[in-house]
Amino acid sequence: MRKEGVVWKIFNALVIVMGLLLILGPVWVIFINSMKTMQEAGQDFFALPSRLNFDNYVELFTRSDFWSSLRNSVIVTVSSVALVVIFVPALAYAVARNMEKRYYKILYYYILAGIFIPFQVLMLPMVKQMTQMKMLNQTGLILLHLTFSLSTGLFLFVNYIRSLPTEIEEAARVDGCNVFQTYIRIVIHLIKPMVATIIVMDSLGCWNNFMMALLILNKNHNMWTLPLMQYNFKAEYSFNYTMAFTSYIVCMIPIIIVYALGQKYIIKGLTAGAVKS
């Protein structure tokens, strides 16, 4: 048993090391190539740079389109996540505490069905509808992020809220709180782990979203987010991948900070919200 335990620990360690290499390997390649000139990168893609060269970073930070794209990404991401945090938990609370009623049950499964519809199926009708509504802009993109976050968010929040005891809410109602006061004063504090989970998940999704931003914002380059700006390092016959890699490194930093601040809640929120008590 003891020998088997040692073998198992060695196997686990090897799996962890392989996982780290698979995750950090591409990041390392991107980083070293961001420090190279195009000539150096063309000679040996995986070699270390001859010197610490920050010219690509200086060029990136002096580009006006980088700062405008960064501003657009921040606006879209913060606005989208804020709307999700405001509306999705409130809707989930109403559904979770009324699941015995037919209307709320049908509403829950109707919204949940959106998880099973591929985005590729929705692209054409989505663009057509947003064009008719004249919302091919940042506002339209923010509302679409809220819409596409609704199914997953509702599923996680409903199951999380249903796992919470109702005694505290009942005591609050006895003390004179209405449903809104109970939600604001009691429920919001109980679902903080799931709120943090949704913030991190949706921040990652909104910040890195390329296809939806391409479909909605492509006509006006002043509205481009960072993924669209990065895509345009590729010309018809060339690809400035050292500058592209530099932008990848810089653009990873804000979302890594968000993930680092909220990662301790992710497992707790997902494991609690994914099962029904």
Describe the structure in your own words.
The structure is a single chain. By secondary structure, the protein is mostly helical. It has 13 helices and no strands. Helix 1 (2-34) runs antiparallel to helix 13 (241-273), helix 7 packs antiparallel against helix 11 (211-217) and helix 7 (138-162) runs parallel beside helix 13. The radius of gyration is 23 Å and the shape is globular.
List keywords for this structure.
277 residues, single chain, mainly alpha
In short:
The protein has 277 residues and is an all-alpha fold. The chain has helices spanning 2-34, 38-43, 55-61, 64-96, 102-112, 119-132, 138-162, 167-174, 179-190, 192-208, 211-217, 226-231, 241-273.
Number of strands: 0
Report the radius of gyration as a whole number of Å.
Answer: 23 Å
| Spans of at least 5 consecutive residues with low confidence | 273-277
Percent helix among the residues? over 70%
* Approximate strand percentage: under 5%
- Class by helix and strand content? mainly alpha
- What's the tally of helices? 13
Termini separation (Å)? 36 Å
Largest sheet: none
Return the average pLDDT rounded to an integer: 86
Shape: globular
Following the backbone from N to C, one meets helices and strands in this order, namely HHHHHHHHHHHHH
